[in-house]
Amino acid sequence: MDFGNVSTCSTNNNTMMIKSIQTIFAAQCVLTDPHQWPEDKTDEFLQIGVEDYDFIIVGAGSAGSVVANRLSEIDKWKILLVEAGDNPTIESQIPGLLAETWHTSIDWKYKTEKDNNSCLGMENQQCVWPRGKVLGGSSAINALLYVRGNKQDYDNWELGGNPGWGYQSVLPYFKKSENIMDKRVKKNNYGYRQYHGEGGYLNVEKPFTSENLTKMIFSAAQECGHDVLKDINAEKQLGFTSLQFTMKNGVRHSTANAFLSPIKDRLNLHVVKNALATKLLFDDNNERVSGVEIELKNGVSVQVKSKNEVILSAGSINSPQLLMLSGIGPKSHLNDLGIDVIGDLQVGENLQDHVMTPVWYASPKSNQTLSFEWSFIQYLQKRKSILTSGSDLSAFINTMDDGSQQPDIQILIFNLNGKFLHISGYGSKLSESMIKILKTNDVIAICAILLNPKSKGRILLRSNDPHDPPLIYANYFKDVNDIDTLLRGINEVMKLENTVAFRQKDVRLVKSDYDECSTMTLRSKAYWECIIRHVSSTLFHPVGTAKMGPSSDMEAVVDQRLRVYGFRGLRVIDASIMPTIVRGNTNAPTIMIAEKGADMIKEDWGEAINQEM
């Protein structure tokens, strides 16, 4: 969003519009000031020649920014952080404009491969998978939700052969990052410090919300027997809530904002932007990773050496891609592409994601909705408008009714608009059917999200060219049990229609006239199975493609200290190491993994770690 250059003019009328324009220009300076980010060291890098670094970190995203911050605390260590993207844009800094960042230069623009089983209503039957190609990575383009998952998720990691990864072991690392500013949590709750941290780099606060929508949803939830919680990240996870955001004073607080900006002047941290890591380097015996080959923004390729370790924090798609390009991956797949196999490991397997199915509710169109332009001005002036909110209303439920405190469905609630349909990759038929409804109605999407999928996908190389996007096989619904769980979740969502809270607002279930499902009855199992296969899409949480596990686990790629099996000097620290996906949004857990991984590196290299968490 470029406001260009405007010449000033004098006037005696101090109008609202002039004030608004002044506000816009002032806000643009604040939100896009390049001096808030670490300087790009590419030119200096080329002038002085390639240096030996103690640690090279590939990827400045949700994990890499954290690792760079923590390792550069050790003054004697020289750190290189390699990022394929550039600085965040103004759109990425404004919470409500997150979808404006998709399909842009700061997005890798990934899409899944066709499987004739899912994403059937999407353009070319491919689901879009936005991933951040920018400082802050996907934390710079995500929905800002700060959710840690269920306690049992981490205990299961430990039970699976990963000592030190149980809930009580990882909780201190969640707290270490956090600066909790949610007044709901802190007010008259002196025990909040058991679960939350204060003074950490990452600001966590409650977003601006639509009180009318919140009141209606919470009232309906209580009518259906659900609890309403103030804090989803504390003792209880089951219930409805307004989620916490990684936001500071109405501005996105990505890991670039939180962990890189405050340390941008550290002399021992060099950041190279617009630089693509293309291959890992090995010693003569192929037993130790000795560095990284990177392609700089001018097209020049250089080899950079590391004295201690290379850390891959490029995410669940790019980390396995780089490993396989370097010869570490499934032997048969690498052989097919003519890549010399250095390590036969199940890289790219075990791909898991949260898939969501929307249930649409409509009500008569309100005349009280502000135009986008005025909402934008209101945001710039006060940081309070629909642009500081988003998909904050959510719930975690157990559809099995077995007394378990472990949810199998998440519910996410947000207002639908036509642009979101288009930018999310919906095909023209589906988009047109919903836009027709939007002309005369306000539409709320109440999405059922599969939290513990049994179906698993994989990442494969498209070719041995690092510029080619990898093949993403999501394999949604390969296991039909996942459809059964989603159907139970949808049934719980449909119960809201019969509540007094919904009837009072004339909020009703609406059926899309999308061709493939239009002949089926709205409340039938067949209709919702059709919707699940055609309309379901990602919640943007791919994990697991460099699985953490014991050496006895044939799928494991890294051990419990995140070291790649069979190699010295190489770790993976990002969401790809998750053995199983957590039951919640994945950004906060990824930051936790980075905090814990950084401490492991310090311990392994004889440096003291910060005990204050």
Write up what this structure looks like.
The chain is α+β, with helices and mostly antiparallel strands. The protein has two domains: 37-142 and 261-353 and 454-475 and 541-613, FAD/NAD(P)-binding domain (3-Layer(bba) Sandwich), CATH 3.50.50; 208-242 and 355-450 and 477-535, 2-Layer Sandwich (Cholesterol Oxidase, domain 2). The strands form six sheets. Strands 1, 2, 11, 12, 13, 14 and 25 form a seven-stranded mixed sheet that branches. Strand 9 and strand 10 (251-252) form a beta hairpin. Helix 3 runs parallel beside helix 19, helix 6 (167-177) crosses helix 19 and helix 15 crosses helix 18. The radius of gyration is 24 Å and the shape is globular. The two termini are 39 Å apart.
List the helices and strands and how they pair.
Blueprint: H1 16-32, H2 42-48, E1 52-58, H3 64-71, E2 79-82, H4 90-93, E3 110-111, E4 128-129, E5 145-146, H5 151-159, H6 167-177, E6 178-180, H7 183-186, E7 202-205, H8 211-223, E8 239-242, E9 244-248, E10 251-252, H9 255-260, E11 269-272, E12 276-282, E13 289-295, E14 301-312, H10 315-325, E15 328-329, H11 331-336, E16 343-344, E17 355-364, H12 372-382, E18 393-397, E19 409-415, H13 418-423, H14 428-438, E20 441-450, E21 458-460, E22 471-473, H15 481-494, H16 500-504, E23 508-509, H17 515-518, H18 525-535, E24 537-538, E25 570-572, H19 587-604
Parallel strand pairs: 1-2, 1-14, 2-11, 6-7, 14-25, 15-16
Antiparallel strand pairs: 3-4, 5-9, 7-9, 8-18, 9-10, 12-13, 13-14, 17-20, 17-23, 17-24, 18-19, 19-20, 21-22
Helix pairs in contact: 3-19, 6-19, 15-18
